[in-house]
Each structure stands twice: as C-alpha cells, then as structure tokens.
Amino acid sequence: MKEQLAAIVTEVESAVPALEKRAAFEAFKATISGPNGKLTAAMKGMKDVPKEDKPAMGKLLNETKQQIEALYAATLERIEAAETAEKLGPPIDPTLPCPDIASGSLHPLTQTRRLMEAAFRKVGFTVAEGPELETEWFCFDALNTPEDHPARDAQDTLFLPEAAAVDNVTKHGSERYLMRSHTSTVQIRAMMKEEPPLRIISPGRVFRRDTTDATHSANFHQMEGLYVDKNVTVVDLKAILDYFVAEIFGKGSTVRLRPSFFPFTEPSFELDMKTPNLGKLSNQWIELGGCGMVDPNVFRHVGYDPEKWTGYAFGMGIERIAMIVHGIDDIRYFYQNDLRFLQQFA
Ligand code: FA5
C-alpha cells in the first residue's frame, strides 16, 4: 500500500503542471479522488491492512491526502489566475496616455472673450472684475441714472427680495440688491479702488428681464472698457474702437459713432461696425454696443475731480461679436450645450 500511495503522489505531481483548463483539472481529479479514483480505492483498501499496521498506514494515508489536496489547490489557483488574465486581455501599461480620451475645448463665448481681451491687452488695458450680484447704487446711482429711469424698473432688472442678506458684496448704503444689468458697474468699482490714469476692460455675465429670441437672452455677456486720463477726447475713443474692430474683424474694418443716450456718458453713442471681411454681412453697419465720454457726475460719485480728469467708456455684447465672427444666427445655441454645435469650435 505504501508503494501504491507513493505512486499516486508521483502521478499527481507529474500530471498537474500540464493541466491548463478547469475541465481538464476536474477530469483528472476524478481519476484520483472521484468515487472510482485511485486514492479512493487505496482508502477502501485500508480494511485489508493488518490491525497492527493500521495506525501507521492511516497516518500515511492522511498525509498523502493532504499532499494531494495541496497540489490540487495550487493547480486550481494557477488555472484561475490564467482565466482572470485571459478576461483582462493583454497586460496594460497604466503609465501610457489613454488612447481614446475625449479632450474638451473652450466654449465659443470663452474663445471670443479671450480674443477681445487679447486685443485690448496689447494696447495696455488690464482686466478688472466685479460681482454679478450688485447693489442699486453701483448699477444705477453711481452711474448717474435717474430714479425714474426705465432700466431701474422691476420689469427690466432682476431685483432680489428686500430681506435678502448677501455676503461678499460691498454695499454703498442701504440700497437694494440686484443682478447687474450691465458691466458698467465695474467702472465704478475700479475707479473707487484706484486713482487715475486708469485703463481697464471688464468682461462678465449680465442679467436682464429680456424675452429670449434669436438675438436676445435674459442672461448674456458684455465687455466694458474704461479709460481715464487727462485730455481724453472722442478722437481717442474712435481710435481705440477702430483698432479693436480691425483686430477682431480684419483689415479695412471701421467704426461709426451714432449719437445716442446713456446716463453715464456725455456725449453718448451707439457703436456700429462695418467690415469688408464678413461674406453676406460685409459692408453694412452692425451694432456692437454703446459708448461715450464719461459723464462728470460719474467722476464726482467716485471722488475723481471732473475738472482734472476726462475719460471714455464703452460696453459691447460678447455674444453679438461671437455671432458675427462665426456667422451664428441664433443666440440660444450658446447655452444649449449641444455637442454638435460646440464641437465646431473645438
Ligand atoms: C449698455 O449696457 C451700456 N452699459 C453700454 C455702455 C457702456 C454705454 C459704457 C456707454 C458706456 P446696451 O443696453 O445697449 O448698453 O447693451 C450693450 C450691448 O449688449 C448691446 O449692443 C448688445 O450687443 C448687448 N445686449 C443687450 N441686451 C442684450 C440681450 N438681451 N441679449 C444679448 N445681448 C444683449
């Protein structure tokens, strides 16, 4: 029996390295440990062992069983590891870049804003920012806007409830909170912070109770510009705007200043642009925004001496410029997050 057991162990030891699949392993295991297996037969043979040899043979049989079980366990572990590796496929190198990574791109409005900023930075303007949530004083009073001006109407401007308590917004008095309806608020904040000369642009989001259509949105973007120095004239304003439109729309683009009214500028103009480089839109006047010479009352509100300082200001719609540059015929495309639209600008 001793030899029989040793032969079984030798057989198992030599057979298991060749077993690669679970089915083959189970089939082989059955020939050893199954009901008709060799080890099972050896165990059955215990009854024929003489009584005095039984303890020694029983011990040997147990040891043999444990030895064979250990070989089974190791074989099964190896087969399972191979199965897992097969499921996972070829080994991966986690340090390689992902082959099909979807890289993002800048939104067309961000691209347009950056284009506009780059043009103004080239000629010495710096970017100033202000809060979207504002107070009535910064949005209207300081900008010389009379109490009864229609822009102050709750039908045009989004006011916050009286009781709203808002952190992080500098208040000037006890005026109401509102969502800023233009970026001209940043003129005031910049002038209150710094002494002239001053040359800033301020891009940002603004809010109005406008009904949405192809060219209007209740929430859009503007870029404000402000220059304060001694002896600034309309000629300087026209020159900077001519420079700007040539940078954005190409050579031959020019600006027309059309008389208008804004409470914070005197004189005030609508700012129109014409360019030969726009296909169907070429050579016709297109409105970009408003502008004018800073009203002396605005200087008084921020503590600048209007006898000493002069300046110009302008405000343009960023959507408007993006639509003209790219030939987009509906402002709503900008806000729908439709990849078919956005990917055209990637
Ligand atoms: C203003 O907001 C003035 N603050 C501009 C200004 C600044 C004048 C400094 C003088 C000195 P206005 O309301 O016209 O002006 O808006 C300026 C531009 O914003 C418009 O020409 C247009 O391009 C854009 N705009 C106005 N309303 C909307 C809207 N609902 N949706 C999209 N763009 C708009």
3D architecture notes:
By secondary structure, the protein is an alpha+beta fold. It has two domains: 2-88; 108-345, BirA Bifunctional Protein, domain 2, CATH 3.30.930. 39% of the residues lie in helices and 19% in strands. It has eleven helices and nine strands. The strands form two sheets. Strands 1-4-5-9-8-7-6 form a seven-stranded mixed sheet, with helices on both faces. The longest helix has 35 residues, at 54-88. The chain starts with a helix and ends with a helix. The model has no long low-confidence stretch (mean pLDDT 93). Bound molecules: adenosine-5'-[phenylalaninyl-phosphate]. Residues 182, 184, 208, 210, 216-217, 220, 222, 224, 262, 265, 268, 287, 289-292, 313-317, 319-320, 331 line the site of adenosine-5'-[phenylalaninyl-phosphate]. Tetramer of two alpha and two beta subunits. Its cofactor is Mg(2+). It is an enzyme of class 6 (ligase).
Number of discrete helical segments: 11
Biggest β-sheet strands, sense, barrel: 7 strands, mixed
Principal-axes geometry comes out as rod-shaped
Global mean pLDDT? 93
First and last CA, distance: 80 Å
Number of β-strand runs: 9
Strand order of the largest sheet: 1-4-5-9-8-7-6
Total discrete domains = 2
CATH architecture of the largest domain: 2-Layer Sandwich
In brief:
The model has no long low-confidence stretch (mean pLDDT 93).
